[in-house]
């Protein structure tokens, strides 16, 4: 059994990338894993202020928001799933802000398995290469991360357009195989 943390950065509950998170979650639960999904939109996460309190002085971030709790859950997880809708060929701002807030404790994120999920209005599979490259900048700073899988579904913009797409089965099956 693995401890899985899903970070959904969709600004819409039930949005396309969020729906893929739910499918991944159902597959992972069916395989007996412990799974938690965090919907970043429901959290208060301020941008990093670059004050260096966390990295230089090894003290907790002085900002009083939900980022510290989420980072602790990332540290405790065996598997981290990061899901984003595509905005201007990159990850959502919500996801980028969350990643930036990891700067104080990223050196403690060791030996994690990662899965990346992305959806986009444009139906070009090369978009996922750009998204993975965005995430790779974060992983390059971690010790021994492994990308275990990626799911991309293009051609979906409006809520619900993901229904019936092959990516739904892919997400469930990927979650079941963790």
Automatic annotation (TrEMBL):
UniProt-listed InterPro entries: Flavoprotein-like_sf, FMN-dep_NADH:Q_OxRdtase_AzoR1, FMN_Rdtase-like_dom
Pfam families the record matches: FMN_red
Domain NADPH-dependent FMN reductase-like residues, every copy: 3-121
Membrane-crossing segments per the record: none
Protein name: Flavodoxin family protein
Organism expressing this protein natively: Parabacteroides absconsus
Organism placement in taxonomy: Bacteria, Pseudomonadati, Bacteroidota, Bacteroidia, Bacteroidales
